[in-house]
């Protein structure tokens, strides 16, 4: 089912060979991150040293993981590549589309009814193309990956930001957009700017109420939500070895909250124990043979300032438990200091819910430590003042935790055990106790606590803490409760104190599961039919994009001149539109509706040059499309910043926009436009943005000579007949020009394979 040991042996052979070579070429000892990066170069053996934060490098990841929301468009696109199977081992996990409400059994049943067409599609397409499929209820993608697929020294990508969780098992695991995943599934390289490196030296040992979660809550407080941008955070030092593997996963998981490319730890005994406990002793045996290659060189860790771009040191022995929030995960406050802060900021002290789970903190160890607190409430006759909700990370964890009586303890406190899925962490929570926008406080062990994230209410103040701290706070019902110093009044009117939490790193009787929810794909899936209902409003098979003819680039109309910020959210809004992310035609109805029209400063209100009337951007564009008229979008600086969402390029392309001309691009969006066979162009002279008028028509006079390193010439014809001729730059190389000429990168792959 799970991993292929021969593949791992191959990766390990590669690591031994290439790391030595990389050390020779760079002329220095190497960090673990560099070892993994240099041993996964697309070109094979390293031939040159890369500059961190500067060079773009092609990599060959070992694995791909996709979750149900992002997998839809990724797999629809992959089908376009005309391949028989995915080129790299891939799994799909159904975890985002299950709403938490009444508890696992009923919630799962409802999700299977409301989203069955999406699940059926994902299951059939996985079966056809050799992709491992994890059914709804099987677990949260990153826990399932950690338990089944992650391995020390490996590189993986996933269509979810918290793919980084696998760093807990010594991987370089990175969250990407669907377009990148599709490239790798189709056998292409994956490009990444060679990351900078932040070293975090951990000394001492966790004790008392402090948990692994507090390490990252502290780091988030130091680095803030942007501090890790473009960098891999590598943890090392004696303290790192004292952390469990799943605890390391928690720390890496929330690296996404400081913007880090990913985070990782060197291979150690805790990882070995986890591998053996999860039935992967053969990987542990192989990893033991090359142990020194699966961690940073001694010299690096002895003199970290010399080898990392930034170094932070944290003493675990003196680290205090934290609660971070509200509304941002980097607002770190040590427990015990929160009461005063809450009073000053008028945050509600009363806590309504304590939620334990999410991909961040739903391991066996997490549940056992939280259960030790819950058990004390039972033993000491304390009635919890808040509601409890639990989302186990995987069916394997749930089954084992139930067997070992951990869930029973929570149930005695009236907790609702939700499905092994994301639930409240992604706003999939039908919260029974609140309607409307009342101000309230919740605590959870998740990673993100932005406004509206858990329950859609902008006034829900969410605080992030370790599972055991969440349990303690939920029992007390107060944000200002400090379990290390405060007492609680029990049902007998006695003052009682909670003892420090205790937990088990791994289940003493081993993990157990009846049905883990995995479906292996058919060996030969060629006869499998992909299930998409013709009248589905959520899914639509894609048609290959038709190449844009040079003749169509004469008389191009202006669709919108966007003013100021235009992010991928402005181009393809999220929220309710996420429902349609597998249906290009339907989701295209949100195209650019958030962009501000430079001529009237309104959103979704542009002039239709054919009628002179104003209308919504998608409607006007559909009228141009119906008449076979191509259009251009003009934009400001950093156009397309935000997420790597490929929809932001696919939708305009689908609707007939031929070119996007801006002052500057966010790089990922620019690449996405290229992949979809569109023109992504920048003004050679930024001031030319001001020449563009509402009724302009554009002629791409030398498009027939479109070639690498050669700017294009654009003739702008204004309403009064006057013309301006300007130069526009592009960054297409020869290969990317072929994508354009074929209509898309996937069209080219298909053609090459034919
Ligand atoms: Fe799911 Fe929340 Fe993790 S949405 S994948 S549990 S961050």
Notes on the protein architecture:
The protein contains 26 helices and 30 strands. It has a seven-stranded mixed β-barrel. A six-stranded mixed β-sheet has the order 6-5-2-3-4-21, with helices on both faces. The model has no long low-confidence stretch (mean pLDDT 96). It is globular, with a radius of gyration of 27 Å. Helix 3 links the parallel strand 2 and strand 3. By secondary structure, it is an alpha/beta fold. 32% of the residues lie in helices and 17% in strands. The longest helix is centred in the N-terminal third of the chain and has 22 residues. The two termini are 31 Å apart. Helix 16 packs across helix 18. Among the domains are: 159 residues, Aconitase, domain 3 (2-Layer Sandwich); 204 residues, Aconitase, domain 4, CATH 3.20.19. The site of FE3-S4 cluster has 13 residues, from helix 6. FE3-S4 cluster binds next to helix 6. One of its GO terms (molecular function) is 4 iron, 4 sulfur cluster binding. One of its GO terms (cellular component) is cytosol. Belongs to the aconitase/IPM isomerase family. Keywords: Iron, Iron-sulfur, Lyase, Metal-binding, Transit peptide, Tricarboxylic acid cycle. It comes from Aequorivita antarctica.
Give structural attributes.
Aconitase/3IPM_dehydase_swvl; Aconitase, domain 3; iron; 26 helices; iron-sulfur; alpha/beta; binds FE3-S4 cluster; 6-stranded mixed β-sheet; 7-stranded mixed barrel; globular; EC 4.2.1.3; Aconitase, domain 4; 754 residues
Bound molecules: FE3-S4 cluster
Judging from the principal axes of the Cα atoms, what is the shape? Answer: globular
* Number of helical stretches of at least 4 residues: 26
**What is the mean predicted local confidence, pLDDT?**
96
How widely separated are the two ends?
31 Å
- In CATH, the topology of the domain at 550-753 is named Aconitase, domain 4
For the record, what CATH class of the domain at 550-753 applies?
Answer: Alpha Beta
Fraction of helical residues: 25-40%
Calculate Rg over CA atoms: 27 Å
Class based on secondary structure composition and strand pairing:
alpha/beta
Poorly predicted tracts of residues: none
- DSSP E strands, number: 30
Strand order of the largest sheet: 22-25-26-27-30-29-28
């Amino acid at each position: 089912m799970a991993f292929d040991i021969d593949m791992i042996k191959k990766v390990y052979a590669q690591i031994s060979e290439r790391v030595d070579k990389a050390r020779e070429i760079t002329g220095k000892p190497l960090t673990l991150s560099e070892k993994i990066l240099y041993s996964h170069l697309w070109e094979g053996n390293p031939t040159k040293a890369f500059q961190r934060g500067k060079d773009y490098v092609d990599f060959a990841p070992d694995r791909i993981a996709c979750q149900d929301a992002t997998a839809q468009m990724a797999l629809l696109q992959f089908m376009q590549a005309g391949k028989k199977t995915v080129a790299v081992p891939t799994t799909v996990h159904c975890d985002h589309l299950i709403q938490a409400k009444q508890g696992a059994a009923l919630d799962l049943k409802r999700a299977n009814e409301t989203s069955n067409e999406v699940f059926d599609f994902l299951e059939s397409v996985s079966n056809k193309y050799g992709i491992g499929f994890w059914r709804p209820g099987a677990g949260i993608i990153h826990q399932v990956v950690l338990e089944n697929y992650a391995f020390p020294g490996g590189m993986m990508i996933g269509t979810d930001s918290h793919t980084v969780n696998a760093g807990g098992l010594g991987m370089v695991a990175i969250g990407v957009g669907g377009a990148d995943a599709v490239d790798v599934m189709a056998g292409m390289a994956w490009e990444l700017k060679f990351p900078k490196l932040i070293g975090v030296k951990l000394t001492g040992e966790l004790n008392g109420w402090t948990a692994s979660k507090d390490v990252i809550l502290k780091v988030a407080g130091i680095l803030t939500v942007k501090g890790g941008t473009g960098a891999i955070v590598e943890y090392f030092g004696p303290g790192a070895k004292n952390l469990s593997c799943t605890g390391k996963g928690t720390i890496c998981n929330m690296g996404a909250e400081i913007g880090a490319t990913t985070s990782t730890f060197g291979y150690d005994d805790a990882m070995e124990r986890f591998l053996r406990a999860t039935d992967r002793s053969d990987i542990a045996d192989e990893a033991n043979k090359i142990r020194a290659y699966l961690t940073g060189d001694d010299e690096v860790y002895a003199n970290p300032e010399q080898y990392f771009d930034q170094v932070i040191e944290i003493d675990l022995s003196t680290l205090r438990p934290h609660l971070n929030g509200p509304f941002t995960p980097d607002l770190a406050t040590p427990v015990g200091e929160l009461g005063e802060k809450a009073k000053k900021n008028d945050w509600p002290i009363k806590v309504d819910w304590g939620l334990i789970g999410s991909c961040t903190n739903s391991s066996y160890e997490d549940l056992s430590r939280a259960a030790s607190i819950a058990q004390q409430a039972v033993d000491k006759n304390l009635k919890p003042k808040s509601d409890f909700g639990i989302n186990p990370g995987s069916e394997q964890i749930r089954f084992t935790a139930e067997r070992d009586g951990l869930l029973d303890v929570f149930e005695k406190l009236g907790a609702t055990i939700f499905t092994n899925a994301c639930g409240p962490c992604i706003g999939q929570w039908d919260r029974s106790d609140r309607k409307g926008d009342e101000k309230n406080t919740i605590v959870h062990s998740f990673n993100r606590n932005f406004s509206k994230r858990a329950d859609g209410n902008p006034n829900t103040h969410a605080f992030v803490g370790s599972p055991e701290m969440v349990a303690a706070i939920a029992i007390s019902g107060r944000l200002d409760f400090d379990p290390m110093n405060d007492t609680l009044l029990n049902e007998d009117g006695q003052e009682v104190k909670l003892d420090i939490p205790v937990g088990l790193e791994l289940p003493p009787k081993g993990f157990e599961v009846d049905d883990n929810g995995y479906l292996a794909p058919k060996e030969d899936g060629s006869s499998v039919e992909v299930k998409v209902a013709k009248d589905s409003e959520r899914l639509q098979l894609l048609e290959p994009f038709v190449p844009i003819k040079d003749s169509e680039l004469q008389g191009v109309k202006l669709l919108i001149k966007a003013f100021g910020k235009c992010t991928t959210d402005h181009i393809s809004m999220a929220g309710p539109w996420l429902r349609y992310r597998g249906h290009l035609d339907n989701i295209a109805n949100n195209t650019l509706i958030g962009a501000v029209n430079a001529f009237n400063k309104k959103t979704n209100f542009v002039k239709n040059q054919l009628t002179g009337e104003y209308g919504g951007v998608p409607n006007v564009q559909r009228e141009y499309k119906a008449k076979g008229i191509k259009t251009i979008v003009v934009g400001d600086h950093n156009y397309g910043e935000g997420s790597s969402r490929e929809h932001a390029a696919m939708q305009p392309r689908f609707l007939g926009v031929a070119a996007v001309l801006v002052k500057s691009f966010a790089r990922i969006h620019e690449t996405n436009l290229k992949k979809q066979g569109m023109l992504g162009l920048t003004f050679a002279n930024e001031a030319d943005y001001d020449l563009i008028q509402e009724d302009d028509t554009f002629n791409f006079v030398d498009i027939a000579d479109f070639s690498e390193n050669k700017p294009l010439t654009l003739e702008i014809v204004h309403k009064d007949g006057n013309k301006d001729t300007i130069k526009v730059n592009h960054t297409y190389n020869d290969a990317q020009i072929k994508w354009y000429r074929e209509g898309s990168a996937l069209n080219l792959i298909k053609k090459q394979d034919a």
